[in-house]
Amino acid sequence: MRISPIVRTVLVLTLAPAPIFACKCVSPSPDAPQGRASWDATRRTDVVFEGKVESAEPKWKLINAQVGEVIPANIEEDEPAMQVTFEVLRNYSDVGQKHLKLTTGFGCGDCGFPFEVGEEYLVDADRDDSGVLSTSICSETARVEDSAEALAYLRGEPAIPQTVGTNPSRKKGQLCGHLVLDNGTRPTDGEVLRFREGNKSLIPSDEADPEADGSFCFTQIRSGKYFMLFNNGPQGSPSLFSIFPGVSKLSEAKAIEISEGQQISHLLFKVALQKTYTVSGKISDFSKRQRQAEPKVLLLNAGRLLFAQSYEQEVTSDGAFSFSQVLPGKYWAIVDVESDSDSNTKWSTRKVEVDVDGNVQDLSLELIPN
Predict the structure, then answer these.
(1) pLDDT of 103-121, one tens digit each?
(2) Is the CB of residue 92 less than 8 Å from the CB of residue 29?
(3) 38 confidence band (pLDDT: 50, 70, 90)
(4) pTM higher than 0.70, yes or no?
(5) How far is CA 253 from the centre of its chain?
(6) What ranges do the domains of the chain cover?
């Protein structure tokens, strides 16, 4: 997914042991328990339960802060996470609550587990020293429908062969289509992203690289409703952005419903050329001390598409900045400091909202020493 290099840095350096969309879990020791024995060990050390997801909300100061609120300027200091609330259906550890909350990553290189509201899971969670529960794709957590062998063991039922561990009745679907570009843009310069409707994660469920003729295809899709978008342009500066069937606002998008095993093909996705605008301004009271912090300015989509539509720009020696091709929309503007050259100083910035429906001038941002 083509996202701002600064946002990429946050997800990779602060959360992930591997590049974006390439999470790697630590291989278990050869002496570690295997099969049913591993679940017996898990029950003694972790919190294990069957649960239905009631809600899944992103938790990150950058997005949860109100406009005008002061937040850390080094966004690497605040780790983004999803907070997931479960109704406990069946408990396999010493936990008496009917409802539990846990955290997991966003799922973009940080090993976060992609929970979906309304679905049931067998959850294997760790508890830290402060009592907070967390899980990841590196744990034994899985959908209930894919956990037949583990559930048989945990429930004290007869063993089930591993080959029957995944429910064969839940067939995956396929969604294929064709980009219709009326502006001379090469389809291979962009990407198609698929988001599940109702899922509040900022990370897409999947991405597809279009072929030279504009064709694209998503496979192994679970039943549900999805919306798609096409994003084109260099990292940190998207110049073309369209949401199926060919609109620029998520509120106008058309969700595509996929039933179990359904094959959808020949879907036409129109991508029209959009006018772009300039956004310029200055960091107020810019001093030598601020300049030494090597700040950059970020424009981030003020909503679900934050990672898919974001811009970044370096500032000049006097704190000025200018974005030359910004697509229309509502954005959050902040100052980011990747690294503190002055180790004794921590920086904050103020979250500013910017409506881009024309050229924006004299935007004033703050970089505040703590």
Answers:
(1) 998 876 678 898 989 999 9
(2) no
(3) low
(4) yes
(5) 19
(6) 5-164, 173-271, 277-369
